[in-house]
Design goal:
CATH architecture of the largest domain: Sandwich
Number of strands: 10
Structural class: alpha+beta
Shape: rod-shaped
CATH class of the largest domain: Mainly Beta
Radius of gyration: 41 Å
Distance between the termini: 106 Å
Number of domains: 2
């Protein structure tokens, strides 16, 4: 009995495939179905692998709470300033506006040092007590200029890069702290005074 069943199972593929191989048309259809099945299986496997790969390389988004850097927050610098409101820039460093000092004012000298920069700057020194009467100075690239300011005053210095149009400000400084020595105008923050970017309308 077992021998008969094994013999029948052995002959089963031939009995099933015999009708297919009787003529060329059924043989062609048979192999076309096999090829279509292989193609569909490959396409399914490729799509599955592509989805898995995309899931692995997809960027993860994290919610990071941070303050916006001042450099990102400021407005566009506006490009180079070719003249001073229609007037050419001076050939040498000097005052564009010099405040009037009251009689008896105690004045001290200190030097604005632009020798580390390859661009000209416009410097505005605003007295914290009288911001409407600033001293305004032009200094060419790699130049310097010595100014006289009230020794008792507290000042905020604003610097504009005339090549890029970007503006910066320093913290409040005292004339007495810089008397007799240069004050570097290094806008990258490498100097003795930290400079912070500001909008053009704050200059």
């Amino acid at each position: 009995m077992l021998l008969r069943i094994a013999n029948w199972l052995f002959q089963l593929p031939g009995r099933l495939l015999a009708p297919i191989f009787r003529n060329r048309l059924t043989i062609l259809i048979f192999f076309m179905l096999i090829a279509a099945g292989i193609f569909a299986a490959k396409r399914h496997l490729y799509a599955q692998q592509h989805e898995e790969r995309a899931a692995l390389v997809a960027p993860k988004h994290y919610l990071i709470q941070r303050e916006i850097p001042l450099r990102e927050a400021r407005e566009h610098c506006g490009g180079p300033l070719h003249d001073n409101q229609g007037q050419p820039w001076p050939a040498a460093a000097g005052y564009l506006h010099q405040p009037e000092w009251q009689t008896g004012s105690s004045l001290r000298e200190f030097t604005l040092d632009n020798r580390h920069n390859a661009f000209a700057v416009l410097v505005k020194l605003e007295n914290a007590l009288a911001p409407r009467q600033p001293a305004e100075v032009f200094i060419p690239a790699a130049g310097s200029f010595t100014v006289k300011m009230d020794a008792a005053g507290e000042y905020v210095m604003k610097v504009k890069n005339l090549t890029s149009g970007c503006s910066f400000r320093s913290a409040t400084l005292s004339v007495a702290d810089h008397q007799g020595g240069p004050l570097p105008l290094r806008l990258s923050g490498e100097g003795s005074e930290p400079y912070h970017p500001i909008n053009d309308n704050e200059y």
